[in-house]
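Supplementary notes for students who missed Thursday's class. We covered one full example, reproduced here. Read the sequence, then the structure, then the short commentary at the end.
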Amino acid sequence: MTLPALTARNWPLAVAVCTFSVALSAPPLRSLIEQSMLWHMVIQMPMLVLGGWLVMGAIRNTAVPAVMAAWNRYGLTGFIAAQAITAYWMLPLAIDRAVVLPVADGAKLVTLLACGALLRHSVDRAPAVLQLFFIGYAIPMMIWLGLYFASVDLRLCNAYSLESQVRAGHGLAALAVALGALWLAKLLRRGIGTAHTSPAWGGIQSPAQEDTRSISGAPDSLSGRRQ
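Structure (token representation):
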């Protein structure tokens, strides 16, 4: 099966995930995220990121990833932008605004979808060490925030009850552990060395490695000319 066929098969899933996650912000499903912090923070927000991730995977054979690669070398810019977006929507104030302000909720939809697309584009280009740096920071941050939501005695979000906040905290911590385990299992399965050099895993060679290879091959080419 060719790569274009695989990406074509990803479109129905990408559309389904994006449609459902966006529909949660519109009636009648909106009541779910208005009444439950778990639905808002642990279900809708991650699904928006997943939707952006799937869309970027579905268009990976188009010109869009190549255009983005010009400013997202090694995935560094994408990781930084995605981390900033994620950190903002974990703030209680931002969560409250998304519940009561339609404009803020619309911004949430757009930015989290973009966050997923940036993450996919960055993972496809970043070596394992760079992935470890950013993901190794984001996962513990999510776990800490989830445990904080679950253990604090104060309502951090005015839109939700303390009980809903506790459930969301437990869910966020569990989600973070699951995401970290999935990424680590994938990395270990393919091997750190393969992750650094194989385009299939998103690893790339540094300019220094490419220069070394070209220099080491120079004598052979010169000797061939002399013969």
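Commentary. The radius of gyration is 21 Å. The chain has eleven helices and no strands. If anything here is unclear, bring it to office hours.
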